[in-house]
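User: structure tokens for this one?
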Amino acid sequence: MKANSSSQRAPLSAAWLQAELVRPGGFWRAIQVVERTGSTHDDLLGAAGRGAAQGTILVAEDQSAGRGRMGRRWVSPPRAGLTFSVLLRPAAVPSARRGWVPLLTGVAIAAALRAEAGLDAGLKWPNDVLVNEAKLAGILAEQAGDAIVVGAGINVTVTRDELPAAETTPTGGQATSLALEGATLTDRGQLLVFILDQIERWYLAWTGASGDAAACGLQRRYQGLCQSVGREVRAQLPGGQLLTGVAREVDDAGQLLIQTAAGLIPVSAGDLVHLH
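Assistant:
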């Protein structure tokens, strides 16, 4: 049996997480840890439709139908990663600014990993967390009515032979995990608390500024962590169109501005490949 098999990976303690995160008057209202589900994202979208409160957290030890962006699957061995979704209701934020939710989540994850796990984590627009150019985590956000469910899948103790092959990842890149990168912290419960603390901090600042990412410092922090800015990139847009140029900046709506031969083009969604 492998040393890192699921039988030897410690389960999350729902009681400890509840005590750490859910407090009277606090932002996080409820947390549930399930052993297995199809998708925390889909489960929480359903709960949102039934009126679940902002600040609801759902964590799964194992997912059978985890989703990434554009309907892709997210696969991780049981208890080898953090797979969670949170429910947000940013009523004070105009819809045009809500594209910042997944970017905000990326900032929170990268900041927590840099501060608590000793990793030089960065971001690839719009939804990847990278370490040494390899993908460590993916983020998915989806709106349902006035609610947004944002989720993340983070490889924690995934071993080399448990990772997907580079050619099977959406943009042909290599995947990695905290353990493989020599993280100083791989306790999933502690990591989750640190990440959720960062999400709370940035979300409250952003909503307090009515979604103005520049005013609350989010835009500057994101661009400081974003490894796409300043590089030659190729973007595959949702309709299949390919766009090549230099990523200049992330604008106030969270779009990536790409300088192409035809001019500066804003991109709101797509798969990005770093070319150089």
